[in-house]
Amino acid sequence: MSNLENYVAAFTSTFLVDESVLAKLKYQDIAAWDSVGHMSLMAKLEETFGIEMDIDDIIEFSSFEVGRAILAKYNVNMA
Amino acid sequence: MKHIADLPVRVIAGCGLADLQNKTLPPYAPEAVAFLTAWSKRLMARPDIRAYPDAASFAYWCRPANLARLQRELGRDHLRMGRGVALHIAPANVPVNFAYSFAFGLLAGNVNIVRVPESLPVQADVLCTVANDLLTQPEHAHIAAITTLLSYPRDDIVTQRLSAVADVRLLWGGDQTIHHLRRMPASPRCVDIAFADRYSLCLLSGPAVLAAESKALKALIIGFYNDVFLLDQNACSSPHLVLWQGTTQEIEAAQARFWNAMQAFLQTKAQSPGIHAVDKYTHLCRTAILVKGAKAMPKKDNRVFRVALDELPENIADLRGRFGFFFETIDNDLAQLRRIVTTRYQTLTCFGVDAHVLAETVVSHGFAGIDRVVPVGKAMDIGVIWDGYDLIRTMSRIVATQ
Question: Which of A58, B228, B362, B383 is the most buried (most CB within 10 A)?
Fold first, then answer.
């Protein structure tokens, strides 16, 4: 699976949402993406991509789109 | 383990006391990390974990990235191993505390006997069930052989017998409990780490609260809520006192902005039981009688009770309330804080004031207390540096070569 596919899968499996809602999805937009959901997502992304995310990046990670830019810093590039 | 094999206890996870083996490990041993990360992963994967934010926080803390970071922070300037048997007496007031205590003991390389409260709150039960499940699997056999989570009705004989085999005792509880446990004999080189009753507070900058844009204000409110209401101020790190800095006008406006936003946020949360309101109201009356100059601040409903004081009495820590009861005062030069802080004071959360500068002030002015200065929202974040102890270093021993 490509990085983007893995990234999408992390969201859909953590929040149990359809891929179609992801493009505009932001933290706290849905019940599942509360602070606990956020911890689950961060842990999932770290595991999926074998990275350790910086606390500032975890705090800044506020949406699907913003997350893509943040992961690029960890050499997780999504075409 | 021979001397404790016959004790009448209920084993909740891990192996029975008769089968416990005295096989210590180095800090952050691969087997220990593997077990904790498996525990973390299983917990995070549960659909019901969202109902237990404290259990989720523990699981998040145990994730591979965090343990790797902690291991790097320990460094390798000395060759270390666990001290031996760590006996943990977990507190009743924080449901997931036993899990952190156990994790600290395990990461330090010890054999762990963890006494948990007899009646486990649901999230503690979830943690134990998942742990027990993992510990029955062959890949975690080494950890199972050095782990016993147990409970028993209060029994000094049992506690004494466990105490006698301990190389480290982690004692969590009120002052009375600590005194009682400490008096039980332990081996000459046993290290006691006592987590006694502590008191915590919050410092807010009026100008910063006023200048905060709505996203930052929302984050502040949520952070304060988490610090306080998740455990109804029952945890030692929850603030009971709010200090403000700024001019009188700035503070008045900032208080309105802060508490109104807090009220609005609380209204989105479930209604708390009537008995909490009664508890707070009773406490308010008690305070009015005991404290000169106490002024109840106007309130919209019963969720937050505030008492304003021009001058803090020395015994303010004895007057703390629960379920959302706060004393407030102004302390621009920290003169009040300097006057009242004792060894009981643990966590100072802050907003709009630099935590490092505050921490330096604690040291340079020789404050009798305050072990942590962290941003609002981080009060409950327990870690391997806690209550002023460097736990992994304290719970492991050095094998020196010079």
Answer: B228
